[in-house]
Amino acid sequence: MGSDFIRFVLSEHPEDEVLNYDKLTYAGNLANLASVADNSRYHFVQADICDALAVKKAIQDFQPDVIVNYAAETHVDRSIHDPEAFLRTDVMGTHVLLEAMRASKVSRFLHISTDEVFGSLAEGEASEEYPFRPTSPYSASKAAAEHLIMAYWHTYETPVLITHATNNYGWHHYPEKVIPLFITNLLEGKKVPLYGDGKNVREWLFVRDHSRAVDLVLRKGDLGQSYNIGSGERITNLELTSELLKQLGKGEESIERVKDRPGHDLRYALNSEKLRNLGWKPSYTFQDGIQETVEWYKKNEAWWRPLKSGEYQEYYAKQYGDTKGDSA
Ligand code: TYD
Q: Whose alpha carbon is nearest atom 6 of ligand 1?
């Protein structure tokens, strides 16, 4: 998501410069920004948002007008195995950035959050005012960060904005999230591990539409406010899987039913009227976005193949069992 936003800003705003401050953990990958690496308006610092001195130095050196915080541990399943990493980066890291904001002249801090802070909705949609009911260590960390951000707004008038994204998908997506995992498994001739009964509902948003929305909120949003970013296109995991099987010419036998995720949220759905009133609407339908994404993974095997070896294989084996995901 962050790399797409950087590419978007550099191409849409020729007057803007970008400093990419990134620790490059397992899901970070400089190859995602190879197309802008030689751009004189693009700069890169490899550092951790939990490192207060490094954050302070980056702000002093670069003198940014705005900060957009995409830095986070984001994978729910990993948060179930290792909650601590999520508390560190998503909560403590955000705290470091907020403290650095207080000591700087930065005019806006936009924090990327998630629809998961609202928990599972049996029906209807969550507006920005909906109560927080996070259920996983991941969503609890994101909710905690949001509370801290709003506390800084109320206490110190730190100029903050928050966005809640629904499930993003698209190019350069690390193949542990369901869409890139299923596409790459199918391209490798493996099965796709569908959790539980597959009836869980997610609202899918193409990453470029997310970048456009974040850019709009950053420039036009009201300080101290949060904005939902959703496409309105909600489907079950089973429907999603059928679409991917169709796109890749595979049948139902490529589905491997696996144990459900503990505490698996049934349904997310956002009301994005507030953002639409600012002038945004998605430009990709789910159908177009999925086609674009499948094409990208077909053409960029050299990008994702190495990501599915080494440490990833160990993670995958732990997650689904040694034999799961092997040839169909
Ligand atoms: P995921 O991409 O992990 O996003 P999130 O949990 O943040 O919504 O999962 C999307 C949905 O797909 C979720 O309901 C869990 C399900 N899922 C599977 O069925 N199998 C998988 O291997 C993964 C990773 C997810």
A: 76
The fraction of the chain above a pLDDT of 70, given in percent, is 98
**Which ranges of the chain would DSSP assign to H, the alpha helix?**
2-12, 52-62, 76-81, 83-86, 93-102, 137-156, 178-187, 207-220, 237-247, 273-278, 286-299, 301-304, 311-320
> Are 38 and 74 contacting, i.e. CB atoms less than 8 angstroms apart?
no
**pLDDT digits 0-9 by tens, 225-241:** 999 999 999 999 999 99
Spatial distance between the Cα atoms of 171 and 180, rounded to a whole number of angstroms: 9
pLDDT at 325: 46
CA 328 to each of CA 112, 155, 178, 323: distance values in angstroms, whole numbers, following the listed order: 38, 57, 18, 11
pLDDT tens-place string over residues 92-110: 999 999 999 999 999 999 9
Which residues on neighbouring strands pair with residue 162, listed in sequence order? 111, 226
> How far is the C-alpha of 307 from the C-alpha of 286, rounded, in Å?
26
- Asked if residue 117 has its Cβ within 6 Å of ligand 1, the reply is no
Q: How many CB atoms lie within 10 A of CB 283?
A: 11
Active site residue 116: yes
Cβ(71)–Cβ(110) below 8 Å: no
User: Residue 151, Cβ neighbours under 10 Å: how many?
Assistant: 13
> Residue 86: pLDDT above 60?
yes
Please indicate whether residue 191, judged by its CB atom, sits closer than 6 Å to ligand 1: no
Give the whole-angstrom CA distance, residue 10 versus residue 268.
32
| Number of residues assigned to the chain | 328
* Cβ atoms 307, 175 nearer than 8 A: yes
How many angstroms separate the Cα of 125 from the Cα of each of 97, 121, 221, 302?
Answer: 31, 7, 21, 39
Q: Could you tell me whether strands 160-165 and 108-114 are parallel, antiparallel, or unpaired per DSSP bridges?
A: parallel
> Annotated catalytic, 316?
no
- As a whole number, the mean pLDDT across the chain is 96
Q: Do residues 286 and 235 lie in contact, with contact meaning Cβ atoms separated by under 8 Å?
A: yes
Q: 56-65, 119-128, 303-312, 318-327: which has the minimum mean pLDDT?
A: 318-327
> Is 138 among the residues known to form the active site?
yes
